Amino acid sequence: MRRSLFRPLILPLVILGAIVIIGLDLAGFLGPVNDVIHTAIKPPAVFFSETKRVVGSGVSAIREIGELRQRNLELEQRVNQLTIENLRLAEVETENEQLRSLLKFAQTNPSFDVRGGQIIARAIGDGANPFTHPIQIDLGRTHGLVVGMPVVTDRGLVGRIANVYPHSSDILLINDPRSNINVMTQASRAHGVIRGRVGQLPIMELIPPDVKISEGEIVITSGLGGHFPKGLVVGQIVEVIRNDDLMFQSAIIQPTVDFDRMELVLVITNFPPEEEEPNPPTPEATPE
Amino acid sequence: MFYLLLFFPVALILVAFQSAILNPLSIAGGHFDILTIFLVLLTLYGSRELALLSAIVMAPIADAVAGVPLGVSVLPMLSVITLAHWGGKTIFGARLGWPVLVIFLGVLLSGAITLVELYLLGWNLPWSDLVLRVLLPTTFLNGLAAFAVYLPVVLISERQELHLE
């Protein structure tokens, strides 16, 4: 009897619950809940992430074995065994290479204090919300991270810390539609703003019309606004858009960082970013 | 209360799987959506109430990982559950075609509701890009993937075999 009376109430209760949860979160009362969720989800996220990496390596190894089989049947069995035996070793070696590259970045930029972080998961992209793509790393508040800290790899700028939890953080990538970064071209010193776009390469806008920029030019952070140190490599111009009707030039930028293959990143911890929006950040994209 | 406690670890695993495994597997901008598929299965082969309870647990976890305000995903999930429940009871029964159609329409509807919610919460979103490059590919991808998910479910169900005969 109680069960049948309760049933019709579930739907309105769920709707009411949703409104209450959103309201409490916007009012900032659910910060601890957010922390608990991120702490609880870290172990399965790390497990799936590691499993994917190992399986991916296995699949790549199997493909290589297939090619070798076609080339040389006599060596097939031996290569197969060696590949399986060395699978773990190859994984460690790959990680070592990445760490060496990151170390090189740290050595060539001695003015930065950096902390290495491993990507544990890419945030959920659809169903719950297909429209944001923050990447999560396994460093958080307990490691000294705060919102706004720049994130880099040895290849260049990745983005900045958007949300910080006790043991993990979200990175707002430079190709996210909410990301606007003050940059300049390395050779012609033309200033502009790089804006992320959905499913397309980022675009550098607001470039003065009198400056001649060309394809292949390297784009670096300008340091204006105080959100990023000056001189971090962001990308390369792949297309210049000039239109006499417009007041400014634009350019399509190919980021130097491959976000799909990125596994390890560095967080610059001694660069004090300008005051950031509260955690979680307001969704309005604001230039640096 | 028991169900809420039970769903918490299940929701954690599903969201972690979605975020770590499925989301990076982007095909033409679309992503597989295990959460919607789980909710439709639970609605059709469990009960609507069970699915609603799981949604209220799963949505905040998914939102926290996505970096959006907690609770934003509840209404989109609710729309999927309602669609599955309504259609499962009235029009199509529980034949193979209905879950596939629910996935197709559900992903489209829940995505649209999410967009509207984020807009109302003050997010500045590039609408046309998100609809054309993310929402539509995701809808088609999950509609197609639904065949692979539901076909075995239907085949192993005696009730479904009778229906199909």
Walk me through what this model shows:
The complex is a heterodimer of chains A (288) and B (165). Helices cover 34% and strands 26% of the residues of chain A. Chain A is built from three helices and twelve strands, in the order H-H-H-E-E-E-E-E-E-E-E-E-E-E-E. Chain A has a six-stranded antiparallel barrel with strand order 1-2-5-4-3-12. A six-stranded antiparallel beta barrel of chain A has the order 6-7-8-11-10-9. In chain A, strand 4 and strand 5 form a beta hairpin. Chain B has one domain (2-164): Arp2/3 complex 21 kDa subunit ARPC3, CATH 1.10.1760. Chain B contains seven helices and no strands. The longest helix of chain B has 29 residues, at 127-155. At the A-B interface, helix 1, helix 2 and strand 1 of A face helix 1, helix 2, helix 3, helix 4 and helix 5 of B.
What secondary-structure arrangement, pairings included, does this model have?
The complex is a heterodimer of chains A (288) and B (165).
Chain A: H1 2-26, H2 31-71, H3 76-108, E1 114-122, E2 135-137, E3 150-153, E4 156-164, E5 169-173, E6 180-185, E7 191-197, E8 200-207, E9 218-221, E10 233-241, E11 249-255, E12 264-268
Antiparallel strand pairs in A: 1-2, 1-12, 2-5, 3-4, 3-12, 4-5, 6-7, 6-9, 7-8, 8-11, 9-10, 10-11
Helix pairs in contact in A: 2-3
Chain B: H1 2-22, H2 34-45, H3 48-66, H4 74-89, H5 97-120, H6 127-155, H7 158-164
Helix pairs in contact in B: 1-3, 2-3, 2-4, 2-5, 3-4, 4-5, 5-6
